[in-house]
Amino acid sequence: MKNKTTAAILALFFGGFGVHRFYLGQPGKGFLYLIFIWTFIPSIIAMIDGIVFLTQSEEAFNLKYNRDYVMRQTYQQPPQIVINNHVGQPQSAPAPRQEEAVPENKVPKKDPFQLSADKAYEEYDFEGAIRDYRRSLNVDPRQADVHFKLACLYSIHENTDTALFHLNKAIENGYYDFDEMDRHDHLSFLRSTPQFFAFKSNSYRLPGEPAPEATATVPPEETLELSDDLITRIERLAQLKEDGILSEDAFKREKAKILRS
Question: Where is the TM2 domain (predicted)?
Answer without folding.
Answer: 2-51
